[in-house]
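Board work, copied verbatim: Alpha-L-glutamate ligase-related protein ATP-grasp domain-containing protein
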Amino acid sequence: MKIVSDWGIDRITRELSGAMWTFSHLPDDRSAATFVHRCFQREIWHEVKLRERIIICLALPLAPLVTLVLAAVFTTVNGPAIKKRTGKGIVKQVREQIEVALRCAILPPWYYIFELHDDDKRLHASEYMNRFEMKSGLYRFLRDYNGGLPIPAERSTACIKDKACFMSRCRKFGIATAPILLRVANGEVIPVDWSEPGLPETDLFVKPLNGQGGRNITRWDYLGSGQYRRNDGKLATPDQVLEDLRQASQRRTFLVQPRLANHREIADLGNGTLATVRVMSCRNEQGDFEVTNAVFRMARSSAVVVDNYHAGGIAANVDIHTGELGRGTRGAWGSTVDGWYERHPETGVQILHRKLPCWSELINLAQYAHGSAFSDQVVIGWDIALLDSGPCLIEVNKAPDLDIIQRIGSGPVGNERLGELLAFNLKRTVETKHHLR
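↓ predict structure ↓
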C-alpha cells in the first residue's frame, strides 16, 4: 500500500520534527543522548537563517494537526497488525503516538519503526537519535569543524559523493573497492578499467555517478553469444547496450562496473542480489576510529537490483564482536506489519544465528579506510560487500541514516557507544567553535 511517497513523508516529518524539537524541554540528566539533543537545539538553531526561523515558528501551530493526520495514516497501515500481535488496542496506540510526539518529537511513522508500542522501548524514547537532528544539522556541524580538530587542507567530502573520485581515493590508499569499467557522460563512452572495444562478456552493473538510494541503477546479465538481458527483461547486443547508455547519459553520468557476487557462504541470503553490510564507525576519545554498529542488508525479492532497506529490503543486526546475525525485518513505511523473520520470507533460508564470513577483515577494512582515506570525517556509514576474495568497499555515507541501526538493533543508540562518541565529538566541536569566536 503506497499512501504517499517516502521522500514526501521524509521531508514533512523532518521539518516538523525539527520545529517541535527546537522548542522542547529536555531533561537535565547529563546523558549522552540529551547532550546530542541539546546540541541540535542550541548550536543548529543559532546557525539557522532568520527566514528559516520564521518558517519554523509559523509551522509549530500546525504540529498537532499534522501529528493527528500522520497518526491516522500510519495507524491504519500498522495498527491492526500490532493489535493482533501484542493485544494493544488502536485507541491506545494513537494516544501513545501523540504522547511521544509531544515529549520527544518522535512522529507516528517512527512510533512503529522503532516499535514504541512496546512499553519498555517507549520508556527510552528520548534516547533515540532522530533523523532530522542528524541529517538536518549535526552531521554537517561535525564536518564543518572536523569534530573540533584541525581541519586538513584536503577534504575527502567531495570524493564521497562522486563515485569515480571515491574509487580513485580508495586505490590510492590500497582499499579494496569495485572496479569501474567505463564512464558514460554526454553520449561519450570513456574507458576506465576496460581498454578493449565493446563490452566485456560478463554481467554488468550500471549506476549514476552521483546517485543515491538505489535509484536509476540497472543490471545487464550476459547470456552468451553476444547478448545481454537487462533486469526488466529487455534483450540487447553489446552495441545496443552502449547506445542505451549513451542516450541515458544525456541526462546524467553513468558508471559501468562488473556485477559482483556474494561470498559463497552467504550467497543464499542475497536472493540473487549483492548484499551489503552497513557499518558505522566514529572517531573515538583517542583519535582512532571505532566500529560501533553493523547491520546486514539483503534483497527481499529476486526481481530487484539493489538491497536498499528503505525500498523494501530486509536487514538483520550483526554482532560486531562475532559477525553473527540476529533476526531480519523489512524496511520502508509500514515495515512493522510483517514483524521479524528468523528465515528469509521469500527463500526460506536461515537468517538468525548465521555468521558472516571474513568478519574480522571487514572490521579492519572499515577502521583502516576511516583512519587513512577519510580521516577528516567524524562519523561514516560504510556499505561493504563480502566477496569470495574478501570484504569490498562499495560506498561511503557521510550522513548515514540511524533509523536502520536503531530499528534493526531493537533500541536507541543515544546512550550506547555510538551516542557516547557523538556526544564526545560534539562537545569538542562546540568548545572549538566558541573558542574561534
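Residues 1-8 have pLDDT under 50 and may be disordered.
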